[in-house]
Design brief:
Helix content: 40-55%
Structural class: alpha+beta
Largest sheet: 2 strands, antiparallel
Order of helices and strands: HEEHHEEHEEH
Distance between the termini: 27 Å
Shape: globular
Number of helices: 5
Length: about 150
């Protein structure tokens, strides 16, 4: 059975997620309220490449660093004639670490969802009357209409 996903891309993203976990955050210039990636060096570029972020490697690394250390909030509507405000606030080292963990969890969840979708497509499951996969855990046997990454954690 051939699943409809690119194994190399999945392995690259998983590798990027594992390297993402290596990022440590420290106060920027002694300011405890502003986070900086501690001794990132080429790690930022490696993760940006593994996650296939757009642009050249240096720009992608800068974008990744900003995404991990700065919170951006968009208020309003981008339609013509409407007001829109974009606010950026630096994160503390603790907030940046939580942001990194949230990104890793979201990426794992997206891969999980994609793999289950590819598996279901390969099996041709379009009806609820077909066989299913259930999980037996310490809480009992579970049959869930929707499978998600959080259910296995």
């Amino acid at each position: 059975m051939k699943l409809g996903y690119d194994t190399t891309a999945v392995l690259r993203i998983l590798s990027g997620i594992l390297h993402l976990g290596e990022f440590q955050f420290e106060p920027k210039n002694g300011d405890d309220e502003v986070a900086a990636v501690a001794s990132a060096g080429s790690l930022l570029q490696d993760v940006a490449h593994l996650l296939d972020l757009p642009g050249n490697v240096e720009d992608a690394a800068a974008t990744l660093q900003k995404a991990l250390t700065v919170r951006t909030t968009v208020v309003g509507n981008a339609l013509p004639g409407r007001r829109m405000s974009i606010q950026t606030m630096p994160m503390t080292p603790m907030q940046a670490a939580e942001s990194r963990n949230g990104l890793a969890k979201w990426l794992y969840g997206a891969i999980f969802d994609g793999l289950f979708e590819a598996f279901n497509d390969a099996c041709g499951s379009t009806s609820s009357n077909l066989p299913f996969i259930g999980f037996l855990d310490i809480f009992g046997f579970e049959v869930l209409a929707v499978n998600s990454f959080e259910q296995l954690c």
